[in-house]
Amino acid sequence: MAVSAAALRLFPSATRFVVLCGPGNNGGDGYVAAAALAESGASLAVFAPGDVGKLKGDAARARATYAGEVHAIETYEPRTGDVVIDALFGAGLVRDLPKAVQEAISRVDDRCLPVIAVDLPSGIDGRSGAVRGASFTATHTVTFMAAKPGHLLLPGRTHCGSLEVFDIGIPDRLVRSRAGDLRINTPAVWQQHARGLDPATHKFKRGHLVVFSGPQTSTGAARLSAMAGLNAGAGLVTLASPPEALAANAAHLTAVMLKEIGKAGDLAEWLKDRRLGAFVLGPGFGVGKKAREFALMLCGRALVLDADAVTAFMERRTELFDRIAAEGGQVVMTPHEGEFARLFPEIAADTALSKIEKALAAAKLSHAVILYKGSDTVVAAPSGRAVVNANAPPWLATAGSGDVLTGIIGAHLAQGMPAFEAAAAAVWRHGEAGMRAGRGTTAETLVENIAPLPE
Ligand SMILES: NC(=O)C1=CN([C@@H]2O[C@H](COP(=O)(O)OP(=O)(O)OC[C@H]3O[C@@H](n4cnc5c(N)ncnc54)[C@H](O)[C@@H]3O)[C@@H](O)[C@H]2O)[C@@H](O)CC1
Ligand SMILES: [K+]
């Protein structure tokens, strides 16, 4: 009923609704929608692959509700004015689409016909968002109970069009028990921890964030993180700079403070100050021994390891993971796809795993919260909790955008948020900042558009 209502609402001027029904319960949903459309008086045609007699159980009962004729899918010739209702495969897709279905998809694509997908666009794997052989690209998708990973993870998300989640009366406790510790990243996930941050409080209580600068010729990335940290609410931000980059940094800083930290010895001395609440290491820092030394010294604190600080451990990751486990700090790592593959090559190469499962495996192995970046960023904790982010506009993919994100995480850690919530809230705020900054945003305008945490 929800599918037929969406079809009539979205395409009142359709000359014909074409319902494509598959061999399982997704097809069953299609027959129920077809019966409802027929009852409304709409012009209608139904096509199905293979032998309809094979339908079993609920799908067979659903088939019986539709009294009209069912044609072989091979005979479907798309016409201008058709609106396709794709009820071929949903949650039960287990392998690549059959040839006859792939051919029907390409005929529909050639005509650029609008498609309404039932549950998932056929061809999209609901668990991973992967395309199995081919897939419809829907204008609108009607799913039931809850969004599935395949609606949010790429490339699945780009095939769904607008997503409608229709409540079919399954109790929330059952949905939650099946979803486990997986959520869409909304403020509800971390707001409880954000509420504790009182903006009226003393600047030391709002947390002191330290960002490490790279050498003289690559200082910009760290300054972006530092500025983002300040705008995101850290009370104090200090840029820790090697001596040769002090002048370059000083020329560009006002509210952010500057401190000379050259060697590991300087850092060891400075770390005695427990008011230093959180640390950002990696943006523009340089890949090498110094990055490793600094990171290992910081594993017991609240720490974001990004970019070069992630890559630096490519061949010596056990050293880092063991230290994180031993020191028990609040550590967040923020790899993009390339960095993820460098640090977790065996996990990255496992094609059976979804992005969520990859992030969870990496979190477990590293003992850190993993923020696996992309337009479908996943944040995963060693405990098995995970969120998928969905508010990021595509124009966030701009130079320096990741450095801004890192700074926001740092600000949250400095204010005492636990690592998972700090990372999830930062991804969300970063997405919001991108929306506020609008198309054509640069990293600088992104920093200016970081809004206060929602109340
Ligand atoms: N609680 C639920 O599970 C609900 C399910 N519903 C509908 O039921 C659907 C899931 O039903 P099913 O589990 O029957 O799964 P599907 O209808 O998605 O497909 C399963 C059928 O297709 C076959 N199949 C899978 N991949 C194939 C491939 N590549 N080539 C050829 N055949 C293939 C399977 O052997 C099986 O016969 C959902 O997507 C949704 O539309 C809804 O009616 C609401 C409630
Ligand atoms: K479908």
From TrEMBL:
Highest taxon of source: Bacteria
Alphabetical keyword list: ATP-binding, Isomerase, Lyase, Metal-binding, Multifunctional enzyme, NAD, NADP, Nucleotide-binding, Potassium
InterPro entries per the UniProt record, alphabetical: Carbohydrate_kinase_pred_CS, CARKD, Nnr, Ribokinase-like, YjeF_N_dom, YjeF_N_dom_sf
Family matches, as CDD domains: YXKO-related (cd01171)
GO process terms (BP): metabolite repair; nicotinamide nucleotide metabolic process
A Pfam family this chain is assigned to: YjeF_N
SUPFAM superfamilies noted in UniProt: Ribokinase-like, YjeF N-terminal domain-like
Stated family: In the C-terminal section; belongs to the NnrD/CARKD family. In the N-terminal section; belongs to the NnrE/AIBP family.
Function, in words: Catalyzes the dehydration of the S-form of NAD(P)HX at the expense of ADP, which is converted to AMP. Together with NAD(P)HX epimerase, which catalyzes the epimerization of the S- and R-forms, the enzyme allows the repair of both epimers of NAD(P)HX, a damaged form of NAD(P)H that is a result of enzymatic or heat-dependent hydration. Bifunctional enzyme that catalyzes the epimerization of the S- and R-forms of NAD(P)HX and the dehydration of the S-form of NAD(P)HX at the expense of ADP, which is converted to AMP. This allows the repair of both epimers of NAD(P)HX, a damaged form of NAD(P)H that is a result of enzymatic or heat-dependent hydration.
Protein name: ADP-dependent (S)-NAD(P)H-hydrate dehydratase
Organism: Sinorhizobium sojae CCBAU 05684
